[in-house]
Amino acid sequence: MSHNERAKVEADPNRVIVFDTTLRDGEQSPGCSMNLEEKLSVAIQLEAMGVDVIEAGFPIASTGDFEAVREVARTVKSATVAGLSRASRKDIDRAWEALQHAASPRIHTFISTSPLHMKFKLQMEPEDVVQAIADSVGHARNLCDNVEWSPEDATRTEPDFLCRVVETAIRAGAGTINIADTVGYTIPSEFADLIRMLCERVPNIDQAILSVHCHNDLGLAVANSLAAVHAGARQVECTVNGIGERAGNCAMEEVVMALRTRQDAMPYSTGVDTTQITKASRLVSGITGFSVQPNKAIVGANAFAHESGIHQDGMLKNAQTYEIMTPDSVGLTKSNLVMGKHSGRHAFKTKLKELGIELSDNQLMDAFGRFKDLADHKKDVYDEDILALVDDAVMRHNDRVQFVSLGVRCGSHGPQTAELELKVDGQPQRATAQGNGPVDALFTAIRSIVPHAATLQLYQVHAVTGGTDAQAQVTVRLEEDGKTVNGQGADYDTLVASARAYVNALNKLMVKRERTAPGEMERGGTSAPAAE
Ligand code: KIV
Ligand code: ZN
Hints:
CATH superfamily of the largest domain: Aldolase class I
Number of helices: 17
Structural class: alpha/beta
CATH class of the largest domain: Alpha Beta
Number of domains: 2
Low-confidence stretches: 516-532
Bound molecules: 3-methyl-2-oxobutanoic acid, zinc ion
Number of strands: 14
Mean pLDDT: 90
Helix content: 40-55%
Strand order of the largest sheet: 1-2-3-4-5-6-7-8
Radius of gyration: 24 Å
CATH architecture of the largest domain: Alpha-Beta Barrel
Distance between the termini: 24 Å
């Protein structure tokens, strides 16, 4: 077991370890994929906010995943870095290869234990699964002294068998046992009973920290996680904005703020600096292209907005009338400073700081260039404008395909034509194409420079602010061989934003294409690298 996490829980029995899996389970969401630079920036933010364990990826899934886990492991110093592996030596060795240089590494290995999964997915007998657990955890433990083991689909596993496999994993050296509600099936009272049962019936349970990993298929992931903490779990697995497979995972910001706000009913603590929550949420939504619904708890645009007169009146008299948490406590600061074309680099830097954005010198140079260009075309530049352009300008340095310029002829006198220049692997490439409208012409031009078979699933335009000079934020979703990616682009010119969004999606597709099946597991596993 990691001395870090063990020590934290021993020092304070009510301390809850926050295990963030945005970079692994979150990144498995349909449409989501992050490149190395993006993963690193999320990991740095998670470390800064005090997350205890960062699950950086699934090293055997692809070279890209492996490299991302390795870089996160090398970069992060104060959090434990975990890598996922199935119950095979090859997976575990690859995970260790990626993790070994971490200040505090953890191998997370898993296998399914429900009758349904063992029979149909693994095609293994229960006895063989028990043996696989002993072998895989033992092997992982020989490499790393911090091993987490998860019974996948634990909530549909027979209770006696669950007790037996948990005992086996602890005996083999697992220091954290992670009870996965893989399909989001359980309900709070039942899940709490399950955790209590494990505490009562597994003889060596005191040698491990009990963790929970809840999916949100019934909208209960946070409630189930909190019920489990109440029943004895001391690690919660979660993702920023609740992203993840299907309906997502337990949302970190919700579980952390629930524990903080309701100390009276749930006297548990985490190490998370909650004032970093808004920054983390914006970073993840900007990178993934998954916008946060306005009424989402804690981080939605309306989470602290008061529209009705009665509420506004109450708020003016005493904010506690309608607010159970302050906006400041989640890092939501209001600012009246509107930027414009006379704002200089210093004011821009101050504004970024206020918005919780830290950039390297090169990133700042790019972002400031984009800001100046925007300010030349838009009288008032608001916080939302800056957030949109920073997302767009900063994370794209290492992309293989880069937008350079676009000229468009459109209107009622056709033919609508796009003249496009991109850089592909650093080489300028130009194309001119006609289409049924300017967007069609533009996307045809992109396809002629970067031929691909992906189909366009979604093309969506939002105005970032009000006014006819508002920036457009465009989302493009592409699908190829069952893999989907979301790209985003922002610009005061809707067609330039469209080109940026399409190019962003193409770059993400290239990252995703790398994820080929790593081959069959040694012991009857699935060939698919993804776990839910
Ligand atoms: O949902 C799940 O079962 C998982 C495991 C790998 C923990 O993500
Ligand atoms: Zn999961």
